[in-house]
Design a protein that fits this description.
With 288 residues, the protein is an alpha/beta fold. The chain folds into two domains: 194 residues, Spore Coat Polysaccharide Biosynthesis Protein SpsA, Chain A (Alpha-Beta Complex), CATH 3.90.550.10; 85 residues. Helix content is 44%, strand content 19%. The protein is built from eleven helices and ten strands. An eight-stranded mixed sheet has the order 3-2-1-4-8-6-9-5. Strands 7-10 form a two-stranded antiparallel sheet. The chain is globular and about 55 Å long. The two termini are 34 Å apart.
Length: 288
């Protein structure tokens, strides 16, 4: 832990050593316009079959590698943050490529405003318009995707970090944004850019992800149901089906037929899965 640093860069990783190394290349001494002594880099590694420990220690000895808790990405980010000593925690993903002015742009925004949370721009690397393509693009702000955000360490600690009940990479950053916005405005810093690769799922991958995507959504809506206007099981199912049928029609218009099929499957399985996951959330709340 380095208490004299401005930024602690937190990079969660899991079985993506090549992409992680490409990310770290952008953060090594001399690559950022911000002097290297102003920031530290912490890699929290959730790998099970392998780890990035050797690659980091041999090629990037200035970065701190720590083993992750293997409880999902929210817990992995929190684990990295627990080793941080910077005034601000800056989060990016292991497959992102930060621009050279990434950290200095956050520093300029930090000095110009009194906010305690910022989000940077995320640019797709590849074609985001392909069928079954996905990428957390953020060109105008308002999303607070965890691939490019900065939070004052004191506020992060006050909030208790990411909610580790979100076991998958879905909605956990939206939850943090909602909780942070109670305490501070969130500034969009377009100059603080990272590139994020566009990934194209196979149809079996996309279909097999439906249960965990549904579970994450139910977890998020249950936690914020009053704010988001969900009153009962019927409103959960109605809102879900309506959303995914709209998505299906939008994909059909774009001739993204695989994405349309996945959206249809999401709509049809929601009425079965949502009550099951909602019952779990209610049972967990009753035992607290």
């Amino acid at each position: 832990m380095s208490e004299n640093k401005i930024f602690s860069v937190i990079i969660p990783t899991r079985h993506r050593n090549d992409q992680l190394c490409a990310c770290l290349e952008r953060l090594k001494p001399g690559q950022q316009s911000l002097p290297f002594e102003s920031y530290e880099v912490i890699v929290s590694d959730d790998g099970e079959d392998s780890s990035a420990e050797q690659a980091v220690q041999m090629n990037y000895p200035w970065a701190l590698w720590v083993p992750g808790p293997r409880r999902g990405p929210a817990a992995n980010r929190n684990n990295g943050a627990s080793f941080a000593g910077g005034q601000w925690l800056v989060f990016t993903d292991d497959d992102c490529l930060p621009d050279s002015f990434w950290l200095s742009s956050f520093q300029a925004a930090m000095q110009a405003t009194a906010v305690e949370a910022m989000e940077g721009a995320i640019y797709p690397i590849g074609d985001p318009d392909r069928d079954l393509a996905h990428c957390p693009s953020n060109l105008q702000g308002g999303y607070f995707w965890s691939a490019n955000i900065a939070v004052a360490r004191g506020l992060f600690q006050k909030l208790g970090g990411f909610d580790e009940r979100y076991r998958f990479a879905d909605h956990e950053d939206e939850d943090l944004r909602m909780r942070a916005s109670v305490h501070t405005d969130i500034v969009f810093v377009p100059e603080a850019r990272v590139g994020h690769p566009v990934r194209v799922s196979s149809l079996p991958e996309a279909l097999s992800s439906i249960p965990k995507r549904t579970q994450s959504w139910v977890c998020h809506i249950f936690k914020h149901q009053h704010t988001l206007g969900y009153a009962d099981k019927r409103s959960y199912v109605r809102g879900w089906v309506r959303y995914w049928l709209k998505e299906m029609l939008a994909h059909i218009r774009l001739l993204h037929l695989k994405s349309a099929l996945v959206a249809f499957a999401m709509a049809m399985t929601g009425p079965v899965l949502i009550p099951r996951y909602l019952a779990r959330e209610q049972a967990a709340e009753d035992t607290c």
